[in-house]
Design a protein that fits this description.
mainly alpha, two-stranded antiparallel ribbon, globular
């Protein structure tokens, strides 16, 4: 289905169906809620709600999961401005000027510009998805198994290369994810692999226990250990609409943050955090009075909030057009799609146009809902911030256990969740990010399937990956990224050896 008024109208018709509209509202409301509550985040929440998607239609489930993600980006600004605690990791930068504005009696304009900037950025990003989605998907449809394998391998290495912590640790975690993905029956021969005679492992390790354990249970345990002590801004919030001067000061930052977040959000591994820091740094660099930043500059709220919402929504482009999840949240989206027997990638637009265009149109509707939700409910969110965490966390753990059990009615899945929860805590203590593991687990089966399919079509000739230009280019790019990962560590080890030799 080509881009045009017919396609856009079709998308709005799908998203306006009662069930899809309800799913969109539920997603953005829950997303705003967990964005306001510090220490939970969209990944943990989406993992806890994963079992709910089994009972929903594919379109409604994806619309709800997407709403939770970009809704959390909106909600994170509220707690950043009022409590000086980022409700979501991408809202860290908003604390710098947002809370200072609140202390100066400007909490209303700060919350208002965060909401309107997010809406403008989100709306522009949805338009970008509509423009870039069809041409990218048409190109990707020409890919065969060798090109798809090369693309997945390149995305796999890009995610590990752009990891925030140690690159080697990220590679190791991704390889662990690939190894876990091999447990179960061989996709070609149905031979058991790494099951050790256990029937419960014939279907492989569950995606939901891994997600809930690594991101839900582990997050709760770490937050209990750290504890929270927040100073909540308790004065009455008034004047949510920014005045003309504040709008004039925010127009440029909103535009620049939107463009920056749009293009950075497409790249695998970037996420929503990097664009917010870059947008803030850009505004501070070009400002006439950079000393204002950190003391309540409204530009320091407008730019990062626009950037993180733009990046959150454009991260759907590589998922829907190429089948590559650029971050952990999109890996969850892949899981939700595969549960409903939908293969993410360029075929989504042709085989499931109601899903693609319904999702894109629902983002527009969801952005409008978020503006309506965020501004009038500020008072309720402030009250919610005062809920004791000793009451909140047991409820989250209980919900995780019930959700995992109800999928297969198997206590073994609850045990897996507990194991991966403890592993998640260990990984975080060792500064090993769990996101590469999840991406490796999700991409592993697709990489193996296309690798073996390409070898079958070429009758076992491995040079098929080198004789096709696109496949060769992607493999070379992946190798180059791996070299860039390994070289700094080798150089560091070499310097350490020389220093030891001199002493």
């Amino acid at each position: 289905m080509d881009l045009g008024l017919h396609a856009i109208g079709y998308g709005f018709a799908v998203s306006a169906e009662p069930l899809n509209l309800l799913a969109c509202f539920a997603g953005v409301f829950i997303g705003t809620l967990i964005g306001v509550l510090p220490g939970i985040g969209p990944v943990a929440t989406m993992s806890m709600l994963f079992p709910v998607t089994y009972a929903m239609t594919p379109t409604a489930s994806i619309i709800m999961m997407a709403g939770i993600y970009y809704g959390a980006m909106y909600g994170g600004s509220t707690t950043s401005i009022l409590a000086n605690i980022p409700g979501e990791a991408a809202s860290v930068v908003t604390c710098l000027d947002g809370y200072q504005m609140a202390r100066q009696g400007q909490a209303g304009p700060a919350l208002g510009i965060a909401a309107f900037g997010s809406f403008i950025a989100g709306t522009a990003s949805v338009l970008g998805i509509m423009l870039l989605g069809p041409p990218l998907a048409s190109v990707a449809l020409r890919f065969g198994p060798p090109e798809i394998f090369g693309l997945l391998l390149l995305g796999f290495t890009m995610v590990t290369y752009l990891a925030g912590a140690s690159k080697l640790k990220a590679v190791a975690m991704a390889l662990v994810g690939l190894l876990l993905a091999t447990v179960g029956l061989d996709p070609m021969t149905a031979t058991p692999r790494f099951t050790y005679g256990t029937i419960t492992l014939m279907d492989g390790i569950g995606l939901v226990p891994i997600i809930m354990g690594l991101f839900g249970v582990a997050e709760v345990l770490l937050n209990i250990e750290k504890g929270f002590h927040q100073e909540i801004f308790k004065a009455r919030v008034q004047g949510l609409l920014p005045n003309r001067e504040q709008w004039r000061a925010s127009a440029g930052p909103i535009a620049r943050g939107t463009v920056l977040g749009f293009f950075l959000g497409i790249l695998p591994g970037i996420g929503s955090i990097v664009p917010t820091f870059l947008a803030y740094a850009l505004e501070k660099r070009i400002a006439r009075h950079p000393e204002r930043f950190g003391r309540g500059a409204i530009e320091g709220v407008a730019a990062p909030e626009s950037a993180n919402n733009a990046a959150a929504q454009t991260s759907f482009i590589p998922l829907l057009t190429l089948g590559i999840p650029p971050n952990a949240v999109m890996a969850l989206m892949v899981g939700a799609m595969t549960i409903h027997n939908i293969q993410p990638g360029p075929q989504v637009m042709t085989s499931n146009p109601q899903l693609f265009w319904g999702l894109v149109a629902s983002m527009w509707i969801g952005n409008l809902m978020l503006v309506v939700l965020n501004l009038p409910l500020i008072g309720m969110w402030v009250k919610l911030l005062q809920v004791p965490y000793r009451l909140l966390y047991p409820a989250i753990l209980l919900f995780c256990a019930i959700g995992v059990y109800t999928i297969n009615n198997a206590s073994f899945d609850v045990g897996q969740t507990a194991v991966f929860g403890l592993l998640g805590v260990v990984f975080m203590k060792l500064e090993c990010e769990p996101a590469p593991l999840l991406l490796g687990f999700v991409l592993g089966p697709m990489m193996e399937e296309n690798l073996r399919r390409a070898l079958l079509l070429s009758r076992g000739d491995p040079t098929v990956f080198l004789t096709r230009p696109i496949s060769l280019g992607m493999l070379l790019a992946a190798v180059l990224l791996l070299v860039l990962i390994v070289l700094p560590n080798l150089r560091k080890k070499r310097e350490e050896v020389f220093e030891e030799g001199e002493t």
